[in-house]
Amino acid sequence: MAAREPQEMAQVAAATGAKKVHRTWDRVLVSAFLAGAYIAFGGLVAITVSSGLDPATWGTLPTLFTGAAFTLGLVLVLIAGSDLATGNMLLVPFGAMNGKLGLGDVARNLTLVLLGNLAGALLVAYFLAVQTGVIGDADATGAAGLTHERLVSIAEGKALGETPWQTFLRAVGCNWLVCLAVWMSLAATTVSGKILAIFFPIMAFVAMGFDHVVANMFFLPAAIFAGVEDIGWGTCS
C-alpha cells in the first residue's frame, strides 16, 4: 500500500492547515457544522451498539464496542471533508509554524470551528437522537429504554464522575490520539488506508474513557434533552 514519507506528510499538513484558514467565515462555519454532526452520528451509533450490555456480564467490553463504533465520526470528517476542532488543532497551528499563517488566523479559525461543531452536535442530539425516539426517556421500554440507560451511564460518568483535573488530562490524552489519527491518515493515499489509520487511535481513546470536546457536545446535551436527572447546562461547563 502506497504511503507518504514523513517530510511529505509535513508539507501536506501545513498546506491543509493554510487551506482551512483561507476561506470565508461562512464556509468554515458550514464545514464545522457538518463535522459536529458527523461526530454526533458516531456518538449515537456508539450508544446504540453498546446499549443493553450489562457490565456485570460484559465487564469493560462495552467501552471497546463503543470505541469501535465511534470511529465512524472521524471517518466521516476526514473522508467526506469537514472541519473538526480537534483535527484543526493539529493542522492549523502546523500551518502557522511553517510560516503560512499568523496566530490571529489560528485563533479565529478554531473559534469558528468550535461554534460550528457545537451547532452540528446540538442538532443531531435534539432532533435525530431524542426527538426521533432513538434515545428514549426515563420511562421508555425496549430499544429506546436501553439507549437511554446507556446515555445516562456515559453522561453521568463525564459530567459527575470526573474532577476538572481529570477531565483536562483525559482531554489531553484524547486529542493526542485524535491528532495521531489525523497525522497517520495523511500518510495514506487510499480511502481504505485512511480508515485503517483512523480506526485504532480513535477506538483506543474512547475505550480508555478519554474526553473529546466535540463528542461531549453531543453526549451531555443529548442527556439534557432526554431528561437525565442531575445533568444540566451547568454540569456541561
Give an overview of the whole structure.
By secondary structure, the chain is mostly helical. It is built from ten helices and no strands. It has helices spanning 6-21, 25-50, 55-58, 61-81, 85-97, 103-130, 142-159, 164-187, 191-207, 213-225. It is globular.
Radius of gyration: 18 Å
- Low-pLDDT runs: none
- What is the typical, i.e. mean, pLDDT? 94
Helix content: over 70%
Distance between the termini: 44 Å
- Tell me the overall shape: globular
Order of helices and strands: HHHHHHHHHH
Number of helices: 10
The total count of strands amounts to: 0
Report the major sheet: none
Strand content: under 5%
Q: Name the structural class.
A: mainly alpha
Question: Could you name the key traits of this structure?
Answer:
globular; 237 residues; single chain; 10 helices; mainly alpha
Write the layout of secondary structure elements.
Blueprint: H1 6-21, H2 25-50, H3 55-58, H4 61-81, H5 85-97, H6 103-130, H7 142-159, H8 164-187, H9 191-207, H10 213-225
Give a quick rundown of the structure:
The protein has helices at residues 6-21, 25-50, 55-58, 61-81, 85-97, 103-130, 142-159, 164-187, 191-207, 213-225. With 237 residues, the chain is mostly helical.
